[in-house]
Design a protein that fits this description.
Elements lengths: L8 H24 L2 H6 L5 H22 L5 H24 L6 H27 L1
Length: 130
Amino acid sequence: MATSSPGWTRPVAVAAGLFGALTIFSGGMALFGPTAAQQAAGNAVPFVLIFNFLAGFAYVAAALALWVHHPLARPLALAIGLATLAVFAAFGVTVMRGTPFEMRTVGAMILRAGFWLTIGLLLTRAARKT
């Protein structure tokens, strides 16, 4: 049940799909890869690492929905963005309690949440115009 979408959606869908694939790969290596890959993750907070790995699959699903202009693309993008913010908040609490962490996680979570919320909001704006 595809609908029409703005022209920017296809290139963004490709970027989102690549983002998802890279997220699955890097998360999978940190979780299940060789010892060197796991050690390279440093002080990764386990629940954030697991969330991001699983979210990679949602990224791919949302990218496919965006590619085919499926109406679920918008709620998927918003759900991914909001779930990322929720995990980011839990991460913040965990860090404030003294858990060691990687500073790169802060930047990555901001990037992830911002990417998906921007897509969701742009799709919301596009839907209102039709």
